[in-house]
Amino acid sequence: MKKIIYLITLLMLIFGDAYAQNLKNLSTIDPEEHKIISSDRADGRYVSSRGVVQYMMRNIQPQLAFNPKFSKEEFKEWQTEVRTKIEELMRFPEVPPQPLPKLLSKKKRDGYTLEKWEIYPQPGSVVPFLMLIPDGISAENPAPAVLSFCGSTRTKESTAGVDELNPLFLKEKHYDNNRMAMFYAENGFVSVVLDNPGIGETSDLEKYGRAPAYDRDTFSRYLLDMGWSYLGLSAFQGQQIFKWMKSLDFIDNSRIAISGHSLGTEPLMVLAVLNPDIHAIVFNDFMCRTIKRATVETKPTETGVRPAANWLGHCVPGLWNWFDYPDIVASLAPRPLILTEGGAVADLDLIKYAYKIMDGEENISIYHYPKYQDPKNRLHDYEFIPEGLDMDEYFQYVNVDVPNHYFKSEVAVPWLKNIFNVVP
Amino acid sequence: MKKIIYLITLLMLIFGDAYAQNLKNLSTIDPEEHKIISSDRADGRYVSSRGVVQYMMRNIQPQLAFNPKFSKEEFKEWQTEVRTKIEELMRFPEVPPQPLPKLLSKKKRDGYTLEKWEIYPQPGSVVPFLMLIPDGISAENPAPAVLSFCGSTRTKESTAGVDELNPLFLKEKHYDNNRMAMFYAENGFVSVVLDNPGIGETSDLEKYGRAPAYDRDTFSRYLLDMGWSYLGLSAFQGQQIFKWMKSLDFIDNSRIAISGHSLGTEPLMVLAVLNPDIHAIVFNDFMCRTIKRATVETKPTETGVRPAANWLGHCVPGLWNWFDYPDIVASLAPRPLILTEGGAVADLDLIKYAYKIMDGEENISIYHYPKYQDPKNRLHDYEFIPEGLDMDEYFQYVNVDVPNHYFKSEVAVPWLKNIFNVVP
Lengths: 424, 424
Known about the structure:
Two copies of one chain form a homodimer.
Chain A: H1 2-26, H2 31-34, H3 49-59, H4 72-90, E1 102-109, E2 112-119, E3 127-134, E4 143-149, H5 156-159, H6 180-186, E5 190-194, H7 217-225, H8 230-245, E6 251-261, H9 265-274, E7 280-284, H10 290-296, H11 325-330, E8 337-339, H12 345-357, E9 364-366, H13 370-373, H14 391-397, H15 409-419
Parallel strand pairs in A: 4-5, 4-6, 6-7, 7-8, 8-9
Antiparallel strand pairs in A: 1-2, 2-3, 3-5
C-alpha cells in the first residue's frame, strides 16, 4: 500500500508540475513589474482597494511610538501610557473566582523534579502546564524562576525536553535546541512552561491525524468576533500562571524572568509590559517593525498573488495605531533584556537608545544570528527597506538566517544566570 | 496544448482521488463521533482552546440584543444605542475635505442614462461608481433613488447590466437575475451602484488572470491591524456616496432606498442603521444569527477539519458582544423593509415583533426562497438548532436553497415601487 502511495505522489508531482506549468503559460505576470503597489493616476489615488490599504499602511503614525528625544521623565510617562494601552488592547476578561491550580503528577529527573499542573484561568477553561523544580530549593533557599512561551507549534513537552503526549505532536527540526524550559531547570531556575493555545495537549482534533498542522485560524477568528484575540488569550493564560508563580515560596520573587521563542515573544512582550515585577526578558526572535514588514512584502508570485499576511493569531485589532514591536520592547527599559536573534539594526539601536535614556545600557544584550554576528556579513544594515519584496528578500534586509531559527540557549542561559547571580 | 491540459487534469483527478483515498485510510475520524465539541472532564472545562472558545460562544450575551418586551419608548432608546454602537464599531475615519465627485462618462440606454462617476472618500482613495438616471426626471420632477450593494464577487457593471470591464470579472451564474441596479433604473428609480472593495475595477492583480477569485483576506487583515475592517471600509464608501446622492436635485430625498444582495446586506445594515433618512430597505439574503451559526457549524470532515469561519471581510472585532444581525435589522423598525430570502423563522418573527412594537407591521414584508415559501416545505421552523452541523445541514435549518441564491427582483422591485408610490 505504501508503495502505491509513493508512486501516486510521484506521478502527482510530475503531472502536477506540468499542469502548473501549463496554467502558468495561460496567464502569468512579471513579478518585477508589479512588485510595487502604485497608482498611475495624476492625483496618486488608488482605485484598487489593496492600493488604498497600502496607502494607509504607508502613512500610519502609531500614536505611542517611542521617541528617542524623550527625557527620562517623558520616557516614564510614555512607558505608563504603553502599559495602559497594552492592557486595553489585550482585553483580559474579568472572571469570577476560580479554583486554585492543581498538581496532577510529579516525576524525579536528573537535577530537578518535573511537575504537571493545571490552572483554571476563566470559566470553561483549564490550562495544563509543566513546572521543573531544581533540586535543593525551598522557602529558605528560594530560586529564581523563568516562565517560558514556546515557538508556534512546539509543545510544552518538547520545550521541557519530555516525551510528546502524542507522537504526532513531535517536530524534529531543532528539537534539541528548543528545549528552552529544560535548559533553565538544568541551570538552577524554577522553570514553568505552557502550550500556545491550540497546540499539543490544547489542540482539538489534530491529535487524530493532522498534527503538527493545527487549525488555529478558526478559533482565532471567533475570538476577534468576540472582541478578544489569540494573543489576548495566550497572554491571559500566561498572566494567570505568572501570578500564581509569585505565590510559591520557593520562587524568589525578585528574580522572575520571562522567555519566549518565536511566536512566544508576543505573549512575552505583553507580560513584560504589564508586569514591572518581571525582572528579566529573553526575547528569542529577530526584531522588526511588523507594519513595515507588511508594507514592503508586496512582490507577487507569477500567478499574481502577493504575500499573505501572517496567520490570524498575530492580529490584535488596532494595535498598529498605537505602536510597533520595537516600541513595545523599548518601553521595557531599563529592565534586563536580551535579544538573541538580532533583526533590523536600526530598530535594535532604537531599543538600545531607550536603555541609554533610562541609564540601563548595561542591561541590554543583543546577539545576531551567528551568520550575521559579524557586521561585515550583514547585507543591509541601516539601509532603507524598499517596498516590493518577497518574504525571503525581506529576511535578508533584517538579517534573518531562517534555517537557524531556534532557541539560542548558548547566549540566553549564561546571560540570565549572570543577571540573576546564579552560581553555576 | 489545451488537449494536454485536459488530459493532465483528468489524470490528476483520477490519481488525486486515489491519493486522497489512501491518505484517508491512513488517518480518518468518524465525523459523527466528533461533531459536538465536548469535554470529558467532570468539571466540564475544556483543555482544548477550541473548546474554550466554543464555551465562550455558547455563553456570549450580546449587550444590545433586541428585547421583544420593549415598550415603544424603550425600543427608541435601544434603537439609538444600536446606532451609536454601530457608529463606534464602523470607525469611519475623519477625513480632511476631499474633491467633489466627478462625472467620467455618460451613455444613453433604453429608458435611462448610464453615468460613470468617481468619488474621493478619503486621502489616497478613489471609488468609481455607476448611476443610472431614468429618462424624464429633473429638479422639478425628482425621482426616488436606490443605492445598491452587490453580492460578494459580483461587479457594479454586472449589477447594472453593462459589460464587464474585463472578461475575467464575469460570473455567469444568475447573471441575469442579479442585475439589481438595472432593474431599479428600468422601474423609474435613480439607481446607484458601487463595487465591494477589492472586486472588479477595485481589484489588484486579479485582472491579470485570477479573477473572479479575489484575494481580499490580506487587505482585510491589514485593515483589522489598523483598527478598521472590510465592512467599515465598504460601508464608509457607501456612506460617502449616499451623502452625495442627497445633494442631487433630481433625487427625491424623501424616497431614498438601499438594496443589498448577499455580502451587500452587510453594508446595507450599517447604512440603514446610521441613516434614518434611508426610507426603505431591500435585504436580499437569508436572515440568521451569525453567532449561532458559528456555534453550531462544528461537524468535522473525515480528516478532522471543522468548518472554517467565513472569510475575514465579515469580521468586525467585538461586534458579537453587542448584537447579532437579527437585532440590527430589528432596530430598523418601523422603516419599510423587505426580506426576500427568508431564513430562520424564529429570527424573522422577532424582527416582525419589533415592527409590531413600533406600529409598523404593514411596513415589513418577508418572502422565503420559493422552495420554502410554503411552510409545509420548511423542515425545521422554530426548531432548536443543535451543534454538530456541517454547512449544508445548517442551511436546511434556516431554509436556504443555496443554488437559488440571487436577487429576487420579482418581489423586491414591486414592493419598493409600492412603498415609494412609483407608477409603473
